[in-house]
Amino acid sequence: MLANSLLKIENLTKVYEVGLFRKKYITAVDKVSFNVSRGEIISLVGESGSGKTTVAKIILRLLPPTSGKVFYKGEDIWEKKDIDKLKEYWREVHAVFQDPFASFNPVYKIDRVLEQAFNLMDTPVDENAIREALKEVALLPDEVLGKYPHELSGGQRQRLMIARCFLLKPKLILADEPVSMVDASTRASIVNLFLRLRDEYKTSIIFITHDLGLAYFVSDRILIMYKGRIVEEGSPDELISSPKDAYTKNLLESVPLLYGKWKGF
Ligand SMILES: Nc1ncnc2c1ncn2[C@@H]1O[C@H](COP(=O)(O)OP(=O)(O)OP(=O)(O)O)[C@@H](O)[C@H]1O
Ligand SMILES: [Mg+2]
Question: Which of 125, 134, 196, 122 is CA-nearest to residue 159?
Fold first, then answer.
């Protein structure tokens, strides 16, 4: 294993079984392999239903694969069975989801989302650290603490999820459409928070999106997913200047700015 490698995914396959009587099988992820190095930002880009979230759930150990392996720091994550090892894994590998509303329990104040981070770290809740983390993501502690999830805007909820990353300082963040629910200027500032986490703490990030333009600006490497497979992989510039796969070309045509770059004007 390369010294710098953090996550290694080998031949990951997930077949969902649907239907009670007439069973149907959906191959959501099909022999996917890739590596993530320390401090690297990769993007998984693909249309709806291409298997991106399924890959993320398997990496988070929330969903078992049908076959294939996920190695974190050289260890098979499905070998981690005792609760201490799992807590350590979930402290180091952390998710920021597409719809943060679904990640919050509506009956609890949002303070709890941040307090849970201390639970994972096995340390007492530190109010000061919470306030500092909120300031890192440009939220005013006195304005948000004590509120319920529905009392915050979509952008504020998304920032709150990232505040949790500033508390936990995970080694790897799985960001599944983390900026899908916010306007363009909020999007830019949230993307900058991810870049800061990488620059300040060498956090690796798997950025999941269907927006190739966004992937181009944030990633060190882009993987294009189509129907459960990785059809192409490369640095943003490589991919844009000489796309090989027909699906990648198709995606590029839907991003006018990049398409211009690709066409050389
Ligand atoms: N729990 C499940 N049971 C059965 N099929 C599922 C389940 N979850 C996802 N699928 C199917 O697996 C495929 C991949 O879904 P997945 O959610 O991974 O796609 P995605 O790339 O994240 O899409 P999106 O961009 O819309 O979020 C789809 O065909 C989906 O319908
Ligand atoms: Mg998804």
Answer: 134
Which atom of ligand 1 is the closest one to the Cα of 18? 4
Ligand nearest to the CA of 18: 1
Give the pocket of ligand 1 (CB within 6 Å): 16, 18, 26, 28, 46, 48-54, 210
54: left (phi over 0), alpha (psi -120 to 50) or beta: alpha
Residue 6 and residue 73 in contact, taking contact as beta carbons nearer than 8 Å = yes
- Burial status of residue 196 (CB atoms within 10 A of its CB: 0-12, 13-18, 19 or more): middle
CATH node for 5-263: 3.40.50.300
Which ligand 1 atom is at minimum distance from the Cα of 210?
A: 25
Q: Name the residue among 120, 115, 119, 171 with its Cα closest to residue 146.
A: 115
Instruction: Say how many Å lie between the CA of residue 50 and the centre of ligand 1.
Output: 7
Q: Is 114 left (phi over 0), alpha (psi -120 to 50) or beta?
A: alpha
Q: Are 180 and 98 in contact (CB under 8 A)?
A: yes
Domain spans in the chain, listed from the N-terminal domain onward: 5-263
The whole-model pTM stands at 0.90
- CA-nearest residue, atom 3 of ligand 1: 16
How does pLDDT run across 43-101, given as a tens digit for each residue? 999 999 999 999 999 999 999 999 999 999 999 999 988 888 888 999 999 988 766 55
